[in-house]
Amino acid sequence: MAYRAVIFDLGGVVLSSPLHVIRDYEREKGIPEGFVNGVVVSTGPQGAWSRLERGELELEEFFTAFDRDCAEAGPVFSAREMMTRIGASTGPRPQMLDAIGRIRSRGLSTAALTNNWKSDDAAWNVLSDHFDVYVESAVEGVRKPDPRIYQIACERLSVEPGESIFLDDIGRNLKTARALGMATIKVDEPGAALSELQALLGFDLA
Asked: Which residues have C-beta within 8 Å of that of residue 183, sequence separation ≥ 6?
């Protein structure tokens, strides 16, 4: 397969993983592991987290709404504290930025496809120069794993889904991509993911 584009999630792929911050917060506060993800999934599209990532809530509104979602599920929780920690710990992974540069130098297009929220955080905003296309859930009003946001990325890249490779750290996001015809790579450890990407592309990324 001659791929024409590589599409990257940001948090947990190009940036350090917010999931690790959330896990550490749960452990420190004595909250059951996986509690936050469980609330996100169980509250569905109308939950505070989903609404934040579709750009329907500002952060201040989200803090109150997500605390309420969590309270209904059990433990006392501070969304403000957790999100502050996520913001403080988020930074780019140099090996991923290097790989993106090598991919572009070979004439392939790159895109960021991220579930995010309205923010002035520099760690997110400076990344746009590394991509040909930058697709944000809070801007588009739709979030992964909804197929529409993957289709937006492909349309802006002028590629068919089957001509692209998608990297994400969350399985349910990869499932939609595969159903659309994309090649997918789950990012648990960046080096291993880049080795897999290198094998698909057929050229050196290091």
From this structure: 1, 3, 164, 165, 166, 200
